Amino acid sequence: MKSELKYIELKTGFGDNGPAWIGMAEFSKTGRTVYFNGKALKNSNARGISGNYYDIENGDEYWISGVKKNGEDRHWAGGGKIMIDRNVVDLYLSQVESNKLDKNQFELTDIKPTDKQKFADLENKKVN
User: Fold this and answer.
1) Which of 4, 92, 99, 119 lies at a C-alpha separation of 20 to 30 Å from 30?
2) Is residue 83 part of a domain?
3) In the prediction, which pLDDT does 51 show?
4) Whether the model pTM is above 0.85
């Protein structure tokens, strides 16, 4: 599975001020599903919703994008600290060409692994 450093923001119920994370996201073979922090987020292009991914368990909408080189990942109208996986800080700093994490903008966190088999079973469950 392909992994990439991504910015992920919860949109449902928050608009541009939702909780946000920077961490390594894993992609399914097709690239339509992103596995991150215990969740499976499916591409929503066909659903016509404002976020570009939705949580397959509860339908919450998420925005997922690459990390911006200028460090301005949040929407210009949004705000709040971004939780960054402590295991990717060095990679993030190298991508934004910085040597220090701004503690006013970021909070260190631990991103939990995702049980991909759980979601495969959920999506392939027979409907009675």
Assistant:
1) 92
2) yes
3) 63
4) yes
47 in a domain, yes or no? Answer: yes
Select from 72, 93, 90 the least CA-distant residue to 20. 72
Q: What mean pLDDT value characterizes the chain?
A: 89
With 70 as the cut, is the pLDDT of residue 55 above it? yes
Q: Which long-range contacts (CB under 8 A, 24 or more apart) does 22-26 make?
A: 22/67, 22/73, 22/82, 22/83, 22/84, 22/85, 22/88, 22/92, 22/106, 23/84, 23/85, 23/87, 23/88, 23/111, 24/85, 24/87, 24/88, 24/111, 25/64, 26/1, 26/2, 26/114, 26/116
Give the Cα separation of 36 and 75 in Å (integer): 20
